[in-house]
Records
---
Amino acid sequence: MPAKRRKPATRTRRPKSEPRFIEGIHHYCDRWCERCEFSHRCIKFTLTEEICGTGSAMRDGASQTVFDALSRVFTEARSEIERAAKKNTAEDEETLAAGVAVEKRLQRRALHVGSRETKAALTYAHMADEWFNNELKLPLQRVRDLERRVHQGLVSVAFAKGELVRLNDCVESIRWYQHLIYVKLCRAFSSRVEETEDRQTGPLDSDGSAKVALIALDKSIEAWTALQSIFPEKTDSVLEILVHLDRLRTATTKRFPKARRFKRPGFDEKPPRKPKKR
Ligand code: SF4
């Protein structure tokens, strides 16, 4: 289970030096930066762009690759670790070992507390893989069928394009959220264990993470339903997946009843009012 937990800000603050960034927005998003309407207000996105140098590299015609950027990050991280290691005293090491032991204990408890839901999420990820492995030919057949119908004048080019976009959207969405559900549920349960021990109150990371899992479940259900309408002959196999997802959504909602009300920075905030023109 992912170990890092955080305490969500009780209100959204903007760093004074960088007012355009929304603090903590990347903690409760679906990581689909390509489709994110807030990428220009996300510090994580901006830093990733800076490290990978995509924008500037394209402008300068430089040939920097993601591997170059990763190598730079690893070199910097290694120097940091070496510097920190030099500073470490025996006392620090004892504290570190105690911290690791606590973390392991929390993770074991989290695995136990959320085992039903996380196992179901993992099963879903395998079910989706299996479906695509077995039915790989379906999307190809659909493309060929549309091509044929366009040539025969049975449907317009615009209609065929629309259908292909719809199919592509379904597949992309299913594939994107397929593993995110498991990751976010693991995080939600792992945070819950820590919050219970610390008796935390207020907006909880467990609810925020569960909300992202629930949104991923909603989008996956939506995409499978659309896929079912595109391939009506596959209703049985899709229905099995839909039932599994729906049960998991119900179970998650029961375990995290406040999750839907969690306010995610940026995404669940009202846009600021524009000043009235005089
Ligand atoms: S907030 Fe948007 S841009 Fe930032 S990491 Fe999440 S999806 Fe990507």
---
Amino acid sequence: MKSSPHMVARAARQCKNWTMTVQRDEPDWFRMEHELDPSLPDDFSMPVLHRRSRDAYQHVGVGGWTGYWPPEDLAVRPDVEWTEEQKVLVLAAYREKWGRFLEPNHTYEINWPPEPYLVDDGYVVGGALVCNVHTDEGCMECDEFHEGGEVRPAEWTWSAMIEMYEWNGNSGFPESFEWFRFLTMRMDPREVDYEPFSTGRD
Ligand SMILES: [Zn+2]
């Protein structure tokens, strides 16, 4: 039996460092990145994130997470749109991976939209004042400085529940299910919306 190239590709996970200004409203805030499961086609259209009113939620700043509850419990699901086309592609990718193990009277069905989970809340740390042009701490040529720093992006994963149906003539029932994690979204940790820390369970 051949080993799946998808599984090999998935095993390698890159570790990157992002260095950037920590000030809000800077144009070079960390821009959202998507990492798609390699089983999906390259032209898969990534979901579009809609911004909510920032005032209604809490956000982490340079100090990091200060809530009592774990951040993943208070993180509000990103407001993204999912389409039928994406649904078809995700199910097709799953079938391509695992369909050969199905019995003739089994099928896979997908629950849509997918579910998000905040696997990493990321962080922002402040740094020394550096000049805007050369990113130099002791620059003698520049007048304008900003605070340097480092950002580790927050990471959301998106998974769709795949149910295996067993069919008996025209009647089928779900026999088992599995979560298919097909997309990781990385975003600026300061842009993750959290329920206000003081309300809810504490
Ligand atoms: Zn300079």
